[in-house]
Amino acid sequence: MQRLIRRRDTRTFLTKDGNWTSDIHDAARFSDRKKLFEAIQKLRGGDLEIYFSFDELETHRWDFTLPLTEAAPRTDTPVAPDPTLHPMMPPPDPRNPH
User: Fold this and answer.
1) Closest Cα to residue 7, out of 49, 67, 37?
2) CA atoms within 13 A on the CB side of 4
3) Which is nearest to 26 in space by CA: 15, 18, 17, 11?
4) What are the φ/ψ torsions at residue 24 (nearest 5 degrees)?
5) Residue 1 above 70 pLDDT?
6) Are strands 48-53 and 2-7 parallel, antiparallel or unpaired?
7) What is the rounded CA–CA span in Å between residue 70 and residue 9?
8) I want to staple 8 with a disulfide (CB 3.0 to 4.6 A). Which of 40, 47, 91, 95 is the partner?
């Protein structure tokens, strides 16, 4: 199984030289997950997906994709869970604001 990077909007694949191609055979292959995610980080802002290809099957019938979404921005302030959102938590006591 090979890992490739594909643009969702154009359905083109990233090449080794950083261009895009519609030919899956010219796409850059990422056997190392670390290098795959480093390449994705360099391409931030695009509508990307990881394309998993089973090269031994010319039909690509079993290929599948994993869409990438941008993570929410990190915050340094921890957020306490809202006890009213959890069904097993008792409702807050209005007499005790803490």
Assistant:
1) 49
2) 28
3) 15
4) -60, -30
5) yes
6) antiparallel
7) 16
8) 47
Task: Give the pair of three-digit tokens for residue 20.
Answer: 């895009």
Residues 12, 48: Cα–Cα separation, whole Å: 10
Residue with tokens 């359905």: 11
Q: Tell me how far apart the alpha carbons of residues 40 and 22 are, in angstroms, rounded to a whole number.
A: 18
| Residue 29, Cβ density class (10 Å: 0-12 exposed, 13-18 middle, ≥19 buried) | middle
pLDDT tens digits, one per residue of 71-87: 555 555 555 566 555 55
Q: What is the rounded distance in angstroms from the CA atom of residue 4 to the CA atom of residue 91?
A: 49
Token pair, residue 12, equals: 């083109």
| Token pair listed for 38 | 């480093």
Reduced to 3 states (helix: H, G, I; strand: E, B; else coil), residue 48 is strand
Angle (CA) 37-42-45 rounded to 5° is: 100
**Residue pLDDT, tens place only, 5-34:** 999 999 999 999 999 999 998 999 998 889
